[in-house]
Amino acid sequence: MAQVLQIQARVITSPIPPTVVDPNLVAVKLIGVCAHHANVRQAALIFSHLANPNIFAHNAILKAITQNSHWLLAIHFFNRQILSPNAPNPDEFTFTSVLKACAGLAHVLNGQKIHALVAKQGFEFNLFVRNSLIDMYFKVGYLPIARLLFDEMCVRDVVSWNTLISGYCLCGRVDEARWVFDRMSDKNFVSWSTMISGYARMGKLEDARLLFDEIPERNVVCWNAMIAGYAQNEKYSEATEVFRRMQQIGVVPNEVTLVSVLPACAHLGALDLGKWIDGFISRRGMSLSLGLFLGNALADMYAKCGCITEARRVFNKMQHRDVVSWSIIICGLATHGHTDEAFRCFQEMLDCGVKPNDVVFMGLLTACTHAGLVEKGLHCFNTMDKDYGVGPKVEHYGCVIDLLSRAGELDKAEDMIRSMPLEPNVVIWGALLGGCRIYRDSGRGERVVRRILELDSDHSGSYVYLANVYSSMGRFNDAAKCRLRMRDNGVVKTPGCSWIEVDNAVHEFFMGDLSHPESEKIYSMIRELMWKMKLAGYKPKTDLVVHNIDEEEKEDALSIHSEKLAIAFGLISTAEGTTIRVVKNLRICNDCHDAAKIISGIVKREIIVRDRSRFHHFKDGVCSCRDYW
Predict the structure, then answer these.
(1) Residue 248: in which H helix or E strand, if any?
(2) Cα torsion angle, 439, 445, 451, 454, sign
(3) How far apart are CA 555 and CA 542, in angstroms?
(4) Which residues are within 8 A (CB) of 148 and not within 5 positions of it... i.e. 6 or more apart?
(5) 18 in helix, strand or coil?
(6) What sign does the CA torsion over 438, 444, 445, 448 have?
(7) Residue 547 confidence (pLDDT)
(8) In a 3-state reduction of DSSP, which class is residue 534?
(9) What band does 3 get if pLDDT is binned at 50, 70 and 90?
(10) Residue 521, class by beta-carbon neighbours within 10 Å (0-12 exposed, 13-18 middle, 19+ buried)?
């Protein structure tokens, strides 16, 4: 971009005579470069310096604007061209750009006006314009008109067919899309990938995979469709499996591939694969012009894999940042317990002129929750709307109620629930229930459970809470009745599950899991750790086991929690001194938290556990959360 600015400055200060080089030709080239770098403002500035822009210049600026999704600006430039007496008449490329803008805005009225102008100018049966009209009518929800325009076409190309398939898929009518797909005589890579994406969007991953396996020859677009389909449906292991297979057969991933697979790495905690992707980006020279989406995905991966320093490195290297970029860093700092740094980053964002959104405030409130900063959290919540125009959502209320509940302010938390302008949901009441569990307020807890079950009779956490309360009071019959009621109602507790990546493979563990090939060695390590931990002062929290069994059986039950199995596997599978990184789908229990602290001291290794709400960095017998989580 620096060279573009230099050329522009030279052209303005020392204009080239039109007889030597047409200014429009220079402008078109410069506008194209600006569009590639997502600098629409500079492109518009270049266009504005043209005394008599020709049709190529008009089309270049429209393409640059729509290429970067500035839909309203595109319509503004088009209207200015139409109303200007000296401007050239629009051609097929003008119409395809402005119709794309109408589709992006879902502006049916503007689309119909332009359709009328298309007919008036004699472009209605132009192949490119007709394809754009079909696409526009699908995206504004006018399916019958889109199909009619397709049926009336005298000449169709593969783009026409693909547009029809894409339109049906976009509207959720995947069976009709498949009917059209099966009747195509000349399918290309876009045809296959569009159909795969359509199935994936509807959650029909088996159909998507069957179709993917049928493709006679796949290019990177087809692989991207399958990887993105798995990732968008939270099938992260499958997404990484397809990505690895893609590498094995020699298909080179592009930026779209990496943006799709990095979120899968983030959710699985697959740091090794994420690091490989980072290295691939550097080797390909992509890091020099790290794009917004790729930069955000890479920073998010590092933040969610426990490497907040690396996330910040990627963030600092990005040439362009948006509010999503800032929210990734702020939320990442919050989940790692770096409250002060999260607020410093927030101030830095404001200084850069970026307006915060609701996700940024979720990050700040989460930071306060993890640090127990009640006053700071309440101040942040109260200034959201007043100072920044961001209205609190139910998630923000949930975060504040969680903040108050964890700090023992249960009366204030309950008062806030009853006075909030939004209807409290299960998450809101669940935050209060968490406080009742911490501070053993069983009376309030039972009342909250009744409220939760009114909203969601299948809420497993409420049944488990009641069973725990009854067991802690010695009311084992009532606890058993609670579990029976849970079974009779078909309520299933989400099983605890932990993941750990070793040698580029993600291993999954459930409580008491015996399915792993290394189970014998894992359980041998568990027994060794339990013995060493007890010598170091570890006392199993057997009160967490609600079943009416003896103490030894309770200790055995605690020793085979999924995170302990994952840690044990990490210890037997990696070299001494290697950091153990575990991802847990639920909140880490008190016993596993105490155990991880002691284990980190025994084995002289850092153990990082990402649970449902935050990171725990265990080192030398201490946790980064300071036992407040």
Answers:
(1) helix 236-248
(2) positive
(3) 6
(4) none
(5) coil
(6) negative
(7) 61
(8) helix
(9) low
(10) middle
Smallest CA-to-CA distance from 415 within 407, 404, 427 is with 404
Residues 6 or more apart whose CB falls under 8 angstroms from that of 608 comprise 306, 579, 580, 581, 582, 615, 616, 617, 618
* Percent of the chain's residues with pLDDT above 90: 73
Confidence (pTM)? 0.84
Neighbours of 511 (CB within 10 A): 16
β-bridge mates for residue 607, sequence order = 580, 618
From 386, 431, 435, 370, select the one nearest 408 (Cα to Cα).
435
Q: Widest CA span of the chain, in angstroms?
A: 97
CA distances from 517 to 30, 278, 343, 509, 524 (A): 59, 31, 46, 12, 13
- In eight-state DSSP terms, residue 490 is T
SS3 623: strand
Task: Give the pair of three-digit tokens for residue 225.
Answer: 């469709």
Helices 127-139 and 92-105 sit at what angle, rounded to 10 degrees?
A: 10
Instruction: Provide the β-strand partners of residue 499.
Output: 508, 583
Contacts of 528 (CB under 8 A, 6+ apart): none
Helices (H), 336-425: 339-351, 358-371, 374-388, 394-406, 410-419
Contacts of 130 (CB under 8 A, 6+ apart): 124, 149, 153, 160
Report helix, strand or coil for 252: coil
Helix (H) or strand (E) holding 12: helix 2-13
| pLDDT score of 17 | 60
Give CA 428 to chain center in angstroms.
Answer: 23
Report the candidate in 458, 455, 429, 457 with the shortest Cα–Cα distance to residue 444.
429
What pLDDT was estimated at residue 557? 85
CA angle 211, 215, 217 (to 5 degrees): 160
Task: Show Cβ contacts of residue 134 under 8 Å, excluding neighbours closer than 6 positions.
Answer: 146, 149, 150, 160, 163, 164, 167
pLDDT value at position 461? 79
- Name which of 256, 318, 331 is nearest 292 in CA terms: 318
The per-residue pLDDT for 264 is 95
Which residue type, as a one-letter code, is found at position 608? I
Sheet with 505-510: list strands edge to edge: 505-510, 497-502, 580-584, 607-610, 615-619, 622-623
CA distance 47 to 35: 12
- The DSSP bridge pattern shows strands 580-584 and 607-610 to be parallel
CA–CA gap between residue 467 and residue 477 (Å, rounded): 10
Report how far residue 541's alpha carbon sits from residue 379's, in angstroms, rounded to the nearest whole number: 37
Return d(Cα 507, Cα 518) in angstroms, integer. 11
Q: What angle do CA 40, 46, 49 make, to 5 degrees?
A: 140
Q: Is 599:530 a contact under the CB 8 Å cutoff? A: no
3-state helix, strand and coil shares in percent for the chain, rounded to the nearest 5: 65, 5, 30
Cβ atoms within 10 A of the Cβ of 412, count? 17
Q: Contact 305/270 with Cβ under 8 angstroms?
A: yes
- Residue in this structure with the two tokens 């938290």, named with its chain if needed: 593
Specify the residue for token string 């101040």: 379
Cα separation, 146 vs 102, whole angstroms:
14
**Residue 198 CB neighbours (<10 A):** 28
Whether the predicted pLDDT of 542 surpasses 90? no
